[in-house]
User: Fold GNAT family N-acetyltransferase from Bacillus timonensis.
Amino acid sequence: MEGIRLVRVVKIDGDEGLLESIDGLYRRVWNQSIKERLEKHMKYDGFRGYIMKSDDDEIIGFSYGYISRSGQYYHDLLANELGPIKYEKWLEDCFEFVELAVHPNHRNQGYGTILIHELLKEVTNKTTVLTTQVNNSSARNLYQRLGWLVVKEPFVPSKNDSPYVIMGKDL
Assistant:
């Protein structure tokens, strides 16, 4: 049975060690910290998050999101970008899919798909939205394969950012 890994999906909670492990994975994937932002987002309405752990307790990946509300930084950025008609469709009753990260050694094995399904399976909002870099073809392919649509492209969150794409899905 060598090569087969048993994995389990666990809810993200405020455990300091867990948050440090998530931050370590995020640093490995994106070369920056997420800990402070994650701690802030954990206080938002409807926060949901999951990690995937291997049989030896290694964090393979994580995903999280929350209910998108007026007054939240990213919600307001998206609202300004989308305009009133798309706002009504995509943001009025929306779960914001904030992060998905999978360890580089564990990609293309279905773990991202599992984390996405787990995150969204009990969400009661009408829609969900996310953003990813325009040139992140592996992420875009994954989301499109799972039924996400391009809502707007390009989207440049701030003048120093690279272009992103806003994607949405009816739930």
User: Anything to note?
Assistant: The first strand starts at residue 7 and ends at 11.
